[in-house]
Amino acid sequence: MKEEMTSADVAALATELGTGEDSLVDSKIGKIYQPGESLLRIHLYIFKKGKANLLIEAGSRLHLSEYIPPSPKNPQSFPMLLRKHIMGGRITYFRQYDFDRIIEIGIKRGDDETVLVVEIFGQGNIILLDCDRKIILPMNPVTFKGRRIRSGEIYQYPEAQLTPLDVNEDQLCEVFSHSDSDVVRTLATRFNLGGILSEEVCLRSGIDKTLPASEVNPQVASRLIEAIGFLFSPLEKGELNPCTVSKPDSKETFDVVPFDLEKYSEFEKNYYDSFNKALDDFFGKRAAKSLEQKKEATVKEKTEDVFLRRLKQQEGAIKKFEKDIEKNTSIAEKIYEHYQDIEQLLQTLLDAREKDYSWKEIQSIISDAKDQLPAAKKIINIDGSQGLVMLDLDGKKVNIDVRLTVPQNAMRYYEKAKKLEKKRKGALAAIEDTKKAMKKKKTAPKKHFKVVHKKHWYERFRWFFSSDGFLIVGGRDATTNEEIVKKYMEKRDLVFHTQAPGAPITVIKTEGKDIPETTLQEAAEFVVSFSSIWKGGQFSGDCYWIYPEQVTKTPESGEYLKKGSFIIRGERNYYRDVPVRAAVGLELKPETRVIGGPVASVRSRGEHVVELTPGKFNQNDIAKKIYRIYVDSLKDVHFVKQIASPDKIANVLPPGESDIKK
Question: Do 125 and 58 touch, CB atoms closer than 8 A?
């Protein structure tokens, strides 16, 4: 399967996009994105044609594409800096350098002229140059021997290869005379042809591709030159015949070429109006398919049974334990096999240390004594700071502690093996527990949940239904406080507020019915718990209720009311030392939704109730904890995410920090 464009591909594409009706010259550059590590997407406005997307994958491909990868949520620094320099500019030229896999895109914005260099060889790179060819910005800063791709450096091309379009017979013979490879490999590496085109040259010339290069004579060279000329004549004449290639009886394409090859005469082909379209169908479609497969794999991994994932991890851990046990046991046995040599070496090292020799001097002594000391030949390294000598014992690297005896060194490895064996047994027991849990899950009846929910006007506010079925609504901020009073409060309702400021205007929608004491108590608990009292970490507070006619926006003469504030006139009905607490639950009938409010009301209408108190976790953290509780309880991630995602849970929580009540 072809992984990157060849020099011939680059030549064909540069001709197509640099001149003629498909030219990108005078196109305006829009926003730039980096969907992948080496992938760049440049939005273009092509003259008289409209919008298009140029995809550039360093080291692989470049073409206009219909298969647009999704842009990352957080833009990376490279595309953002490119935007700063070239966004809004126009393309002045699009060309190939020499016959190499390098494309240069000239850009002019105002008086500034820059060049975007695309390297499609090796690891590849995308580099922005100024008008003096000084590097403004590389995608990947790298340093090679004699070549630095870093900001501020003058851009240097890689070492030049011979161009097959211009090579003559003498040059060909000269190159082959200094090659110790065969004809096809020499053509591929020294003339920038690559494997497929080199084989095509050999096929068209009738030369055995395995012929040693040193045996190429002028007659053979002449045939090769002639074959190269015929091969690339479509490029020089501008008579391309682009196609993708697949094996007979196979729909999967494995190559894309700008003109027909004799090598592919027996293969299935699909022809295109332009080489760019062929490249997009080959590279773009394949990349899009690969991205879709990765997404599906990610979804599958997330939805895969938690017990199955755990089982795989445990089985993997056991294999590693067994491998490490065998390794440590084997090392211990090797130490005993080489007992006498190691003992002699240890004694030599100890004698030298007693004479105050440095480790550097000891290394020199050991090196000189290899003929008299067999174990010295086995030394790989001496670490004086740790007192360790690394030996090669029949291919196994073994660290020997010079402060220990031979049996003690062997025992160190036996002890490691014993500890690993205990862990292995523990993992085996854990596997049995997992298998039992899996079996229990299979036999347990599985609930199927269905999301049923309608939009209600009150869901824009804080709300709950009391144990007696009354709707209570409260403001979320100054704006919604105003809205409740002006739009939804009726004369027959009751209004709650706290003695201290910083509470939601809370209204019991009575619908003309008598309000039971239980509903009044729950409304009091709600207004206290969803106020600044919770934020302050207090565990009780005072509140009162009044009638709607006691609430007014008309201040006393000379006073001013800010948005969301009201004047309360007349007698107030107080509730003292109301407990500060709240709960979150899941309402599964008749609708499916997450609900929050006073503990009693949530318990009367919801399931899987979680009680909360003022604490230390912020809303996001406590919402995630509750979400995990629901996922573990219901075993249906998709359902929980739909009705009680962390965001939806946070929406029904009291303000400030909380703890889950044990």
Answer: yes
If asked whether residues 383 and 529 sit together in one domain, one would say no
Helices (H), 444-516: 478-483
| Same structural domain, 569 and 420 | no
Q: Report the pLDDT value the prediction gives residue 327, as an integer from 0 to 100.
A: 92
Whole-structure pTM value:
0.51
- Tell me: pLDDT of 373 over 80: no
Q: Are residues 124 and 233 in the same domain?
A: no
Any idea what the CATH number is for the domain that residue 188 is in?
1.10.8
Does residue 432 surpass a pLDDT of 80?
Answer: yes
Nearest to 543 by CA among 488, 601, 612, 474: 474
The number of distinct structural domains making up the chain is 4
C-alpha distances out from residue 361 to 338, 499, 582, Å? 25, 85, 75
Structure-block tokens of residue 119: 């390297």
Backbone torsions φ then ψ of 141, nearest 5 degrees: -65, 120
Q: What is the CATH number of the domain that holds 99?
A: 2.30.310.10
Select from 497, 468, 499 the least CA-distant residue to 485.
497
Domain, as residue range, for 388:
312-424
| Residue 85 dihedral angles phi and psi, to the nearest 5° | -95, -35
Cα gap 9→4, rounded to integer Å: 9
Sheet of 125-129, strands arranged across: 61-64, 50-57, 39-46, 28-33, 90-96, 102-109, 112-119, 125-129, 135-138
Distance CA 378, CA 193 (A): 48
